[in-house]
Specification:
five-stranded mixed β-sheet, Nucleotidyltransferase, domain 5, about 40% helix, about 220 residues, alpha/beta
Amino acid sequence: MARAKFDRALIPPAPTLHFEQALWAAGLPRLAGVDEAGRGALAGPVAAAAVILPPDPNLIHTLHGVRDSKEMPAKARTRWAEAIRNTATAWGVGFAEAEEIDDLGIVPATRLAAMRAIAQLRPAPQHLLIDALSLPATGLPETSLIKGDARCLSIACASVMAKTARDAHMRTLDARHPGYGWAANKGYGTAAHRRAILALGYTVAHRRTFTLKPPEAEEI
C-alpha cells in the first residue's frame, strides 16, 4: 500500500510546543526532542542530539528564533545553540563514525548516534519526540513526526544542537585532512569535494559505501 503523502499545510510558520504541551498535561515533564545531522554527507560522522526542555509554555518566546537548523544561517545556529544549552534541563550529542556507517548502514548508524545522545541525558526522558525516525531499542514511548524539526520546538532544538556539533567536528577533521574543503562543505558531496576525492583518494573519515557521483554531474 502506498504511503500517504504528508500534508505540508501541517507545518506552522515556526516550531510550536503543541506536542510538548499535550504530553506535559498528561504528566510527562521530561520529553526529549531528537534529531540528526549529516545523514547524506560523503565524509564525517552522522550526529544526533537529544534535548529535554523544561515544561514551560513561555519557551515559545525564550527560544523564538529556533528553527529547523537547515533553515538557519550558521551564526544564528551558533547563537541559538548557546541559548538552548542554557535553557535545557538536559542535552546530549552522539556520533556514529564513517566506519560504523559503512558497517551498519546509514539508518542503523543514525539510530546508534541517537541512542548515544539519549544515554547522556540526566534525568532520563520519559518520552521521545523524534524527527521521522523510530528508536524501539530505547524501550521508551515515542512520537515520530514527519518534518518534526519544523513542527516541534524540542526537535528543532535537537536539530540545531546536532548541526552545530557536527559542523565543529568537521572543522576539526578539515585541519587533519586538508584538501577536501570540509570546513566549508561539512563533508557533503559538492563538486569540489568529489574532485578532491578523485585527486587525493579517500580518508578514514570517508563513507566508502556511499555512491560517488562524477564531479561534472551537477554542472551539466
